[in-house]
Structure to design on (870 residues):
């Protein structure tokens, strides 16, 4: 009986959560090698349809798994496979940054988040597709729910791979909406920490004042586990919140740009949370926070010709038209005084929005305009992400509903800067209340 | 006559300022090739005594110079040689980060500041010695004024090379006091911009929340020229300030740790500035700013095991004892809550110190405790730098006096965050008033 039960479990190893898998590996009912094999088998079936990986390290992942199976427990992620967005360096796998300029690039070192996860026992299954330099020009990845639709971007491969059970944990980066939006489009949990919480060393810079490494998983519990490893801090499992949170529903200044399914998801979630005891009210953001998305755009554009100065100087012919226009040309038009003003406006905005949290616990908003758009040429619109990224606030998106064409529609929870632990605890409560 | 006059000029090309050289090259009275040769000749005479370079690109620099001499003017720094601290990537020169782990490291790309300077016509003469990962473990560089004394660190080679007329412009980085202190010890002008003003893409991370690329030159005018190129903004020459500045003399909470020569330099400079019409008063920093140096130490230590996670995991035996103790072990003792508190304290401190500038224009303080200490094992003490780095304020150090053993003693000017242009204008006025 035991063997049969175990075999049944094995067959579905890639569909478990990381938290469950860690228990299986700890108790000896699964090996890291079998976990990796289960994922590779599933990838073999699905890769042609999803194209989530820019590099898949089949042999190296199996070898690492066998090595881990022979040794003592390394840490929180012992034997757990992970995907890493290919904008983040790895010492033993190529790192292309989504650009032909770097197609032969092999960094000498692991990025901080890669080294920390490996130190905790994680297995780097491969590098996931990023748009060019984590900007707009897309890679080949398709939405696993419908290959005619974008998975979102720039962390396209990570969101798609986690959604498609090809890996259970993956990292991404967000400068505009590049973690949260693909998570919502693919129907997984996405987490963008407070700015600067996950160490960025070894990540290809995009916009210094905004770039934030984030995480994908299929449950909030897994995000908490992954987060502890990526920050090298002790793991505290999700805690039950003392009382239902005070939820501020916020459609932002861009309410009219939301799709009907996007609006419905936020309203339905708000109603369900109220039913579960949350205090729910709708808020308008105060001036000057309300229309601050321009601040994000200014910072992002200004850094374009600077962060990509080498590529623009030596390889302009290998840059996409989108990068040349949206980052280089746009950036060249922004003067220094405008950039300084955008940095100062961020200070003002952070102080203003922080004060809101004296009366609320969490903001409930949309993670994207609605379902993933048709086509692979564009990765969707970041309007509902720019403000929170600009203000350095932690964000979580949760899968919630299906839209008119059957694709996932999520909700987004935004917390107070630095109160990431509390946000994840509330997100777990919300996930329970909406289940 | 013309030829003789020109030859006389040529002999001293390496002693000119970049601003002067740019005019010579523009008007045809010097070529980039001759400029490079003058520097290489001087380096040949002095390198054994100073050891400022971790890599010197003799042939490549000459080749680039000849190429520039054949072509049209590239930009602000056309034909001007520069040194780059070897913590900053260069695509055609090795980048060791001052560590044996990276002794064969050849990056694929230029860091943003390197690419921008090259785009403006600068010639990368070589990479300058850095301490290990811009921390404390020193490289071989000696103080050009007395080889038994440290040049300071971590930007040891850049400060020493500029002071010794081996190059006229160089970059450094400051996380604690790594730009300002070596400049003061070597007797050159050092500039640490407001945090985030020079793009850091392609710099080896040390402490994400503090790392700032800075610049060395022998005049404030040259700093302004270099700064425009490194930020890719239009060059505005130093402007005459409308009236003498309101100067706040500040010995900080650490007044008792200053050497007699350090105290004397600040007092003498204050008296001279008052004589030139400045409104001079002494201030005590308000609480909670006063004793905030611990904030810098917390941020720096916390990032140690994170920014250097790969090196700590794979090459612990190649790390210095200093790095293991000061960064890795110290960092492992700091918990997440303490780190978050240090980030929040920075916000509070920045707001408090910003308000001071309603009544003052510039802070006059010490750049270091005094003269460069004897010995090469330590690079000196950063006590008089940590606070300003932590508060993201722009700093300039100017050479001013000699100490009891004949080594340079500088003064430091600290400006309001983001008001770097004004700080440089005031620094030029101060330099004139003290001349």
């Amino acid at each position: 009986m035991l063997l049969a039960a175990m075999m049944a479990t094995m067959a579905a190893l890639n569909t478990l959560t990381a938290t469950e898998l860690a228990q299986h590996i700890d108790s000896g009912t699964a090996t890291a090698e079998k976990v990796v094999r289960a994922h590779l088998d599933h990838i073999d079936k699905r890769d042609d349809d999803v194209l989530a990986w820019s590099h898949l390290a089949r042999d190296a992942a199996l070898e690492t798994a066998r090595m881990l199976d022979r040794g003592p427990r390394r840490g929180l992620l012992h034997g757990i496979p992970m995907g890493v967005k290919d904008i983040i360096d790895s010492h033993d796998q190529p790192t292309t940054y989504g650009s032909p300029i770097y197609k032969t690039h092999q960094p000498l070192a692991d990025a901080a988040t890669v080294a920390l996860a490996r130190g905790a026992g994680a297995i780097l299954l491969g590098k996931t597709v990023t748009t060019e330099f984590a900007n707009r020009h897309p890679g080949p990845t398709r939405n696993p729910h419908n290959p005619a639709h974008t998975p979102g971007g720039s962390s396209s491969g990570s969101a798609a791979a986690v959604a498609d059970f090809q890996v259970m944990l993956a990292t991404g980066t967000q400068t505009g909406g590049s973690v949260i939006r693909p998570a919502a489009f693919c129907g997984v949990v996405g987490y963008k920490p407070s700015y600067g919480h996950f160490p960025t060393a070894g990540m290809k810079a995009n916009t210094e004042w905004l770039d934030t490494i984030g995480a994908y998983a299929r449950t909030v519990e897994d995000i908490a586990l992954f987060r502890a490893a990526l920050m090298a801090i002790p793991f505290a499992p999700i805690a039950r919140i003392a009382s239902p949170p005070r939820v501020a529903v916020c459609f932002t200044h861009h309410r009219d740009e939301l799709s009907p399914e996007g609006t419905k998801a936020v309203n339905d979630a708000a109603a369900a949370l109220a039913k579960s005891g949350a205090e729910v009210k709708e808020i308008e953001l105060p001036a000057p926070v309300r229309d601050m998305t321009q601040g994000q755009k200014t910072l992002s554009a200004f850094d374009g010709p600077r962060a990509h100065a080498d590529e623009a100087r030596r390889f302009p012919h290998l840059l996409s038209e989108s990068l040349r226009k949206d980052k280089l040309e746009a950036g060249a038009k922004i003067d220094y005084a405008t950039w300084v003003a955008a940095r100062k406006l961020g200070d003002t905005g952070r102080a203003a929005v922080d004060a809101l949290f004296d009366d609320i616990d969490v903001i409930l908003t949309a993670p994207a305009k609605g379902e993933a758009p048709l086509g692979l040429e564009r990765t969707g619109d970041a309007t509902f992400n720019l403000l929170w990224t600009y203000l350095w606030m932690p964000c979580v998106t949760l899968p919630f509903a299906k839209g008119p064409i059957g694709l996932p529609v999520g909700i987004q929870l935004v917390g107070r800067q630095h109160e990431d632990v509390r946000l994840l605890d509330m997100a777990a409560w919300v996930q329970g209340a909406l289940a």
